[in-house]
Design brief:
With 268 residues, this protein is α/β, with parallel strands linked by helices. It is built from 11 helices and 11 strands. 48% of the residues lie in helices and 16% in strands. Helix 1 links the parallel strand 4 and strand 5. Helix 1 runs parallel beside helix 3 and helix 3 packs parallel to helix 4. It is globular, with a radius of gyration of 19 Å. The chain starts with 8 loop residues before the first strand and ends in an 8-residue tail after the last helix.
Length: 268
């Protein structure tokens, strides 16, 4: 296991929602026991694991347990809260710590999106680097349906992914997106058979974890920071990053493998 924090008792034992399998950190954010709503014990556990990520992890895989990836917050719990605004504000803060961690973690994040990804579930999909969907996958903002405005960074990530006009249409009309529509809009990277989503996403995470970790981290950083730079500044940042890559062990191995016409063996 990698990361701190444990979940509630399960059959008399505590569980972790973030477990390392090889070089992949498998993170569970929703459970069937909670009806696929966001499990905040899982959110805290996963956030701690991402914040304290060790060099033995080369990729993150985000999954949901049960029939759906994640259907958002527990609306019944909101209804039962004495101070609804205060409760939702506190939970949003925990969700946002997770989204920041997903955004800033230096390794690729792959989401296995089966069934519904609604509300915070859709926000997590947008925070991942690569999302694998099933043919029956559906994405929906969900917030207007309960009279809420979005959280989880959706008003930041969605317009950057699909453009401002489309983002307004999707968010204001609470539009349900099919898997094909999500693929066409670039919100997911690929669509596979429903029963192949987890296997496909796991295989992709394992392949990324076996890749050049430092180069992928630089690529994520360049992409993350590009929105705050002009072209000239980004070109300078790219030049510095590629020079650092070329001079490092990964770059030397990659070039040698290319010249020798063999698969690269990047250092773990």
């Amino acid at each position: 296991m990698t990361g701190g924090g444990v979940g509630p008792a399960v059959d008399g034992a505590t569980r972790s929602y973030a477990e390392r399998r090889g070089r992949v950190l498998r993170c569970v954010l929703s459970t069937a026991a909670r009806g696929a709503s966001l499990d905040f014990a899982a959110v805290r556990d996963v956030t701690a694991a991402l914040t304290d990520l060790g060099s033995e992890v080369g990729a993150v895989l985000v999954v949901g347990e049960g029939a759906n990836f994640c259907t958002g917050g527990d609306v019944r719990a909101f209804a039962a809260a004495v101070d609804v605004g205060g409760t939702v504000r506190a939970l949003a803060g925990e969700l946002h710590a997770l989204v920041r961690a997903l955004h800033e973690v230096p390794v690729p994040v792959v989401a296995a999106v089966h069934g519904w990804a609604a509300g915070a579930g859709m926000s997590v999909v947008l925070a991942a680097d690569v999302a694998v969907a099933g043919t029956s996958t559906r994405l929906r903002p969900g917030y207007p349906g309960i009279g809420f405005s979005p959280d989880g960074g959706m008003t930041w990530t969605l317009p950057r992914a699909v453009g401002a006009a489309r983002a307004r249409h999707i968010l204001l009309t609470d539009r349900v997106l099919s898997a094909q529509e999500a693929l066409d809009l670039g919100l997911v990277a690929t669509v596979v058979a429903d029963d192949a989503v987890v296997a496909e996403a796991t295989a992709l995470a394992e392949r990324l974890a076996a890749g050049p970790a430092a180069a992928l981290a630089r690529t994520k950083r360049l992409l993350r920071e590009s929105g705050s730079r002009d072209l000239g500044a980004q070109l300078d940042a790219e030049a510095a990053a590629i020079a650092e890559s070329a001079a490092g062990a990964e770059g030397r191995e990659g070039v040698a493998a290319f010249v020798e016409r063999r698969p690269p063996r990047f250092p773990a």
